[in-house]
Amino acid sequence: MHMKLIAIANQKGGVGKTTTAVSLSACLAALGWRVLLIDLDPQANATSALGLEGAEGLSLYRALVGETDMAEQVLPTRIENLFVIPADLDLAGAEVEVARLENHLLRLREVVRPIVEDAPFDFILMDCPPSLGILMTNALAAADELLVPIQCEYFALEGLSKIVNLVEQIKGSGANPGLSIGGILMTMYDARTNLSQQVVGEVRRHFEALTYQTEIPRSVRLGEAPSFGQTILEYDPNGIAAKSYQKFAEEFIARQRGETVPQKEQSQGAGGES
């Protein structure tokens, strides 16, 4: 497998996007893959979830505006095989600054190219902000593929159709003709509710080949972990949320290798676990 750049994005907030970026990164690192997590959200939630808040001046901002090389912004984390480029509030300024630059859609692709060519990582995961601004479109223009976390809620398909349209726009513009949706991950699943089961069924019906078999359950522990600056693997390693993300990471790797995962007979999962 060659190194893959994967954007984790959904223009809607609160769908488990950052939780997925951090948890998948940690699970892949635990499996022995070398992972770089880029926090592209000025709110820096992925950064603080790894216990790295307060790393001002180390975001991708300076690289995007041409002041430094991206490789100089990479920090090791306490987790073996996992590295991060943190976010800070300067990134909010990148929305304005980068927009003024020539080829503004391709800035991230240009600054990441040396790392792609050196290939010190197996995966670069980009946690995108929940908006359709410059940072998210730059991530999509740079990415090999897109991972879309979707909350099991009523308007899930509506949000997904917006993402599909955005991918088509990025491809059609020539910014990234090879971009594809690599997968859809259902999050905040509660097996006890008809709504969760209906939403999953609906998404699978429309996007069967893209939707991962693993569903991430609604979990109090997942919500608590970032406040301790820990991943779910550190905070509650034996809980159902950690096990679900580990299962998802294995399915993710199988898909990257082109292996088929057997279809599950029915939705499983626990809801409301605390």
Question: Any overview of this molecule?
Answer:
The chain is α/β, with parallel strands linked by helices and 274 residues long. The chain has a single domain (4-254), classed as P-loop containing nucleotide triphosphate hydrolases (Rossmann fold), CATH 3.40.50.300. Helices cover 40% and strands 16% of the residues. The chain has 11 helices and 8 strands. Strands 3-4-2-5-1-6-7-8 form an 8-stranded mixed β-sheet, with helices on both faces. Helix 1 packs across helix 11 and helix 5 packs parallel to helix 6 (134-142). It is globular, with a radius of gyration of 18 Å. Mean pLDDT is 91; it is low at 265-274.
Keywords:
single chain, disordered C terminus, eight-stranded mixed beta sheet, alpha/beta, Rossmann fold, globular, 16% strand, 274 residues
What secondary-structure arrangement, pairings included, does this model have?
Elements: E1 4-8, H1 17-30, E2 35-39, H2 45-49, H3 61-64, E3 75-76, E4 82-85, H4 90-99, H5 107-118, E5 123-127, H6 134-142, E6 145-151, H7 156-172, E7 180-189, H8 194-206, E8 211-217, H9 220-224, H10 232-235, H11 240-256
Parallel strand pairs: 1-5, 1-6, 2-4, 2-5, 6-7, 7-8
Antiparallel strand pairs: 3-4
Helix pairs in contact: 1-11, 5-6
